[in-house]
């Protein structure tokens, strides 16, 4: 990968990576760190990363860092729970916002899988390469996550 | 086949976008046959997250990398670097050549001292020479060169008051040369500021009217001996040129020799300066490329 490819990656994927990291870590400050570190790692290993694989490489690094970050700090669940309670009490019916809250019900790994699937449109196989899981595991974890999200949606709908 | 056992998996794969056309059609047919499952399919489809595109990473510029100064560059830039290097070399060579040429030019060699003297830091000793030791031969030698212009006229008028046009023209030539000098002389004078004061007498002899006037006003002893020393180490070529110029002047032989000695002394000083320049190696650095101009 050349300098030009790297800078193209920044233009192309920094926002997506930031959104992914935000959802994974639960706050923008950590997400910024994750994005910076991910691109720094990409820059250092640019010789070994083909431009076509750069995006997956970035998300792999961001995924690992987000999971580590999340495991070290439990602030995300705390913060999101507060938002969740407030939102529920306000009775918001917006599907998107409900889904955002539903996302906090998932464990960090399942959440990352859903984000990789829905935000970035990766296949099971690609998600497996990014997360280090095999395709079957990805499929199982994703299905579990979908079921949780679906049930949350239905439950909220019933409450409202 | 989609059935009541596996329809949920199909629905989730449908939400994930992992079903092909045939599988999608099979799922839709199955839901159509079981309308009570339509709501569940809708719920699974609703779990698909949509990214918030308004959320962006603010400082992408900080993540981007600038091309390294000396890194791999495209051909055009390399070409420019070599062009710049060549330009610098050419500049250096031009400077060296200029330094070497100045002493050889007859105009500068023969006349410089006259104008440079007033600028120099020790004007008084020069002035003294003319006044105190007027009778001595050396004094004559030194004072003569000053006069190429003025004395010539006097001599010319003394010997034969009515001169031919040719002789007049001859006299004028040196005058014009002298007038041109100051520009070059200033540069030479600057270069020699660093040189020791001992060698200054070399410039003294070529005083003009102004210096003579000043000399009459100030009466201080001077050392004329120093002026004769440099003459021994004269360079032949500039001397020839100087003599050619001097031969054109209608002045006595003694005075002519004196003028040539002074001129050659000045030439030697200028050569010292240029030699100092030539003896130094110069190093240019353009980007990460270094160019050495080494004295061979």
Task: Provide key terms for this protein.
heterodimer; A: 160 residues; Rna Polymerase Sigma Factor, Chain: A; Arc Repressor Mutant, subunit A; 8 helices; B: 296 residues; mainly alpha; 2 domains; two-stranded antiparallel sheet; rod-shaped
Structural commentary:
The complex is a heterodimer of chains A (160) and B (296). With 160 residues, chain A is mainly alpha-helical. Chain A has 2 domains: 75 residues, Orthogonal Bundle (Rna Polymerase Sigma Factor, Chain: A), CATH 1.10.1740; 78 residues, Winged helix-like DNA-binding domain superfamily/Winged helix DNA-binding domain (Arc Repressor Mutant, subunit A, Orthogonal Bundle), CATH 1.10.10. Chain A is built from 8 helices and no strands. In chain A, helix 6 packs across helix 8. The longest helix of chain A has 25 residues. About 11% of the residues of chain A have low confidence. Chain B is mainly alpha-helical. Helices cover 64% and strands 3% of the residues of chain B. Chain B has 14 helices and 2 strands; from the N terminus they run H-H-H-H-H-H-H-H-H-H-H-H-H-H-E-E. In chain B, helix 1 crosses helix 2. About 39% of the residues of chain B have low confidence.
């Amino acid at each position: 990968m050349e300098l030009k490819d790297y800078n193209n990656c920044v233009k192309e994927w920094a926002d997506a990576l930031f959104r992914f990291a935000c959802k994974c870590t639960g706050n923008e400050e950590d997400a910024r760190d994750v994005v910076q570190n991910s691109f720094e790692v990409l820059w250092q290993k640019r010789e070994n990363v083909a431009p076509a694989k750069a995006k997956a490489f970035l998300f792999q690094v961001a995924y690992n860092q987000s999971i580590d970050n999340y495991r070290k700090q439990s602030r995300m669940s705390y913060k999101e729970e507060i938002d969740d309670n407030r939102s529920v009490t306000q009775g918001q019916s917006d599907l998107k916002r409900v889904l955002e809250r539903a996302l906090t019900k998932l464990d960090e790994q399942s959440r990352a899988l859903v984000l990789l699937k829905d935000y970035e449109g990766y296949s099971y196989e690609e998600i497996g390469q990014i997360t280090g899981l095999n395709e079957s595991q990805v499929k199982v974890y994703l299905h579990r996550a979908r079921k949780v999200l679906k049930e949350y949606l239905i439950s909220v709908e019933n409450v409202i | 086949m989609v059935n009541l056992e596996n329809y949920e998996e199909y629905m989730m794969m449908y939400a994930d976008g992992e079903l092909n056309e045939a599988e999608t059609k099979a799922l839709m047919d199955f839901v159509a046959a079981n309308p009570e499952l339509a709501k569940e399919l809708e719920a699974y489809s609703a779990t698909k997250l949509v990214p918030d595109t308004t959320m962006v990473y603010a400082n992408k510029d900080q993540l981007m990398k600038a091309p390294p100064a000396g890194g791999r560059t495209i051909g055009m830039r390399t070409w420019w670097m070599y062009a710049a290097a060549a330009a610098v070399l050419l500049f250096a060579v031009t400077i060296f050549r200029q330094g070497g040429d100045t002493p050889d030019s007859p105009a500068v060699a023969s006349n410089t001292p006259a104008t440079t003297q007033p600028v120099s830091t020790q004007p008084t000793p020069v002035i003294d020479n003319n006044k105190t030791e007027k009778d001595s031969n050396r004094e004559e030698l030194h004072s003569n060169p000053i006069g190429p212009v003025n004395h010539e006229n006097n001599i010319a008028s003394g010997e034969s008051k009515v001169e031919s046009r040719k002789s007049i023209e001859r006299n004028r030539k040196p005058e014009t040369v002298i007038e041109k000098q100051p520009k070059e002389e200033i540069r030479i004078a600057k270069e020699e500021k660093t040189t020791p004061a001992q060698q200054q007498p070399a410039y003294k002899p070529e005083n003009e009217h102004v210096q003579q006037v000043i000399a009459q006003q100030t009466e201080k002893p001077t050392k004329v001996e120093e002026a004769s020393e440099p003459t021994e180490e004269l360079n032949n070529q500039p001397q020839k040129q100087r003599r050619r110029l001097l031969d054109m002047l209608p002045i006595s032989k003694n005075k002519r020799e004196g003028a040539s000695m002074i001129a050659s002394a000045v030439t030697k000083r200028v050569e010292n300066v240029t030699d100092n320049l030539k003896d130094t190696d110069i190093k240019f650095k353009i980007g990460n490329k270094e160019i050495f101009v080494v004295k061979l």
